[in-house]
Amino acid sequence: MALENMRPLSDVDRVEVFRIATSGFERRYGHRIAEGMTDEELEKALSEVLGIFGGSGGPDRLSVTFKGAGLRIWGDWQPVNHVLEKPLFAGKATIAMARTVYGIADPDDQQLSMF
User: Fold this and answer.
1) Distance between CA atoms of residues 8 and 10, nearest Å
2) Taking the model in full, what pTM does it have?
3) Residue 115: is its pLDDT beyond 80?
C-alpha cells in the first residue's frame, strides 16, 4: 500500500466511504430524494441498498465494508475487520449521513426551512 494512503480518514474520506457503500442509492431512489423520506422510509431504503453484506477495496483505494442489518458501514485506508472494528456509521448516524450527502428532507420535520 502506498505510504500516502497510510493516514487517518479525513472528513472527505468518510463521505467517500459512505458514497461507495451506498453507490446504488441515487439510481434506485433518486425519485424519492426530492420529495423527501421519513426516517423509517430512509432506513428501509438504505437497508435494501446496503444488502446483506458487501464491500470493496484495492491498491490505493479505500477499503469499505457494509451491512444492511443495523445500517453499518466501515471504511479505512487499510483492510477493514468488521468483526473487531467499530463502524464509521451505524443506525441513526447512517440515516443522518444519507440526509446530508444526498440532501434528503424529512417530510415529518415541521421546522421551517431558513433558506
Assistant:
1) 6
2) 0.88
3) no
